[in-house]
Amino acid sequence: MTNAAAEPIAEVWLRGNVRPVLGLAAVAAAIGIALVAAMLATGMHAVHGRLVAVYWLVAAAVVAAVAVVAARPRLERRGGMLRVRLAPGRADEVPLAAVECFFLGSHTLGPDDAVTHRVGTLVMRIAERAAEWQERPTFVPWGTWNEGAVVFDGRWCEPLSIELARRLSGRLVEAKRAVVMLAAGNGA
Fold first, then answer.
1. Quick one: pLDDT at residue 6?
2. Burial 79-118 (b: 16+ CB within 10 A, else e)
3. pTM over 0.70
């Protein structure tokens, strides 16, 4: 029997976003419609109908799976740890003590010499002394984690704002205080 009560409840700090999945759904639907149109134009065969039906089922399953993964929180607190999710099958836990602050940033899209537009980001800064938390592999469209900067791409998380960055910094301070007080109360 596991001790479920010992596992801290997750507090979501940064939600995921399924908006980009709508583009995938639109592409899958366009392909499906083209397949149906081609099938009708060339004469309907039972084999073609089954193949198109299989396509629609697979496309719907893939879009649904991507939407579920994209909707998972990018950042959540569990006790004295922050769980960072910057890859579909991976979540890294970082001690609150290793996190210094949150702030807004941006990065450019397009070739280096021809910036097409900027994308908002949220940066979580890791303390230099926390050497083991300076870098992790990520799914780059969701963000990056290099040289102590955990960067969440604004397209794959909830809308970013100055208020969100302030709220996260405030929650960080409160969470660190709570962990210290809990440790002091336990005689640690």
1. 60
2. bbbbbbbbbeeeebebbbebbbebbebeeeeeeeeeeeee
3. yes
